[in-house]
Amino acid sequence: MAAPSASSWSWFVPLALGVTLLKSLLIPAYHSTDFEVHRNWLAITHSLPVSQWYYEATSQWTLDYPPFFAWCCKCVNRIKESKEIMERPAFILAALLLWNFGLLIVDHIHFQYNGFLFGLMLLSIARMFQERHLESALLFAILMNFKHIFLYVAPAYVTYLLRSYCFTANTPDGSIQWKSFSFSRLFALGSIVCSVFAVSFGPFIAMGQLPQVLARLFPFKRGLCHAYWAPNFWALYNVVDKVLSVIDVKLQLLDPAKLSKASMTGGLVQEFQHSVLPSVSPFTTLVCTLLSIMPAILHLWLRPRGPRGFLQCLILCALGSFMFGWHVHEKAILIAILPLSLFAVQNKNDAGTYLILVTAGHLSLFPLLFTGPEMPLKICLMLLFTVYSFSALQALFRKEGSLLSLPESIYLSGLVPLQVICEMIYPLTPWQQRFPFVPLLLISVYCSLGVAYSWIKLYISFLREPQTDRKMKVQ
Fold it and tell me: What is the number of structural domains in the chain?
C-alpha cells in the first residue's frame, strides 16, 4: 500500500495541538482522590525500597497497580475518501479518539493516567492489523504490566495469536490445518510475553513477595461494586434486590432488623450480602464473565476473519468483563468505547451502536465530577463531543439513512431529563439528605440499559457477519 502524502495529514497537527491546548487549560482542575492516590504512590516508590512497595499501608491508598506502573494515530481509512477534510473518516476518527470526552474528564479533570495506556492499546491493535504480531504481543504485555485491568481483553489476544499467527495456513471455510502449527512462532510469542512479565515481577518473585503483590492487585474484599456504580449487570441486579427487599418488608415477609445496615445503596466500598437475591461472590462473577465472552472466543477460533474479527472479539471481551466483572470501575467502559471508534467510521450499523454506547457510557462518568463548579464544565464538554460525534458520523453515512432507530433515539433523549433530575432537581428536595445515593443509582441503572443493549447488538452483528474477511485499511 502506498504511503499517504504529507499533505493528506496536514490537518492532524492542528487538531492534536488544539486538543492539547484545551487540556492544558484544565490543569487547575486536577483535584480528586486519584490525584492524592498517585502522589502517595510516587512517595512510596521514591522513598521506600522495592521490597516494601506492596507492604506499605500507612496510608489508605496502597499501591495496587502492576510493577511497570510503579517504575514510572495512525488511522483506519475507508476506501472512498471525501474531498472535505472534516468529512474524511481519518479526521473523524482522530477527533473521536483525541477529543474523547470520557478520556478527557478522567485524565484532565478527575486526574488519572489512562491516555498513554490507551495509546499503547491502540498501537498494539494497529500492529495486529499490520500483521506485525510479535510487536503487538510485546506492546500488550507491557500494557498489562502498567495496568492489569487490560486483562479484560487478554482472551482476544491469546485466541487470535494462537489461531491466526501460530497456525500458518487456513482453509477457505476457516477449518484448522493442524499440520501448519508453528512451534517456533509459539516459542517466540511465549518468550516475548514471559520476558516482559519476568522484568516486571521478577524482583518480587525473588523476594518471595508475589502473593502479596497479587493480593494488592486483586483486592476482592472491596466488594461487588465500586462506590460509584458501573452501569453494568450488577447495577440492575442490586436494584432488583433492593426493590424486592422493600416489597418483602411491606408485605412483612422479611424482618427489617435482619436487613444489612450497610446496603449496596449506601455508596460504600465493602463486602455485603444481598437481602433477597443470592449474594454474589468473586467466583460467580468470574464464571459469568467467562460465559459472556466464550461465544466470541469460540467464534474467533472457529471462524477467523483476520484482524477485523480480532478487534470485534476484543470489544466484546471488554464489554463482557465490564458487564459481569467484580468491582468494576465505571471508567473501564473506555476500554470498549475507544476501539469501537475504529469501526464507527467504517460501518453504519457500528456507527449507530457506537453513538449509543459512547453517550450512555460517558454520562455514567458524570458522578466522578460532583462539585458545583464542575457541572457546567462537564455538561458543555460532553455536549460538544456528543454533537460532533452525531453530526460527523451522520454526515459520513448520509446516503445510508439514519444511524438510530426510533426506540434508540427515544432512549438517548431520556438521558437529558435524567441528568436534569439528578443534578438539578433532586438536590433541592428533602430526600437528598435521607437518600443521597439515589441520583447515582438512577444514572447507573439507566445507563446500564444502553450499555447492555450495545453489547447485545454488537454480539449479534459479530456472530452473524459472513465468513469473508472485510478488510480495514491501516496506513
Answer: 1
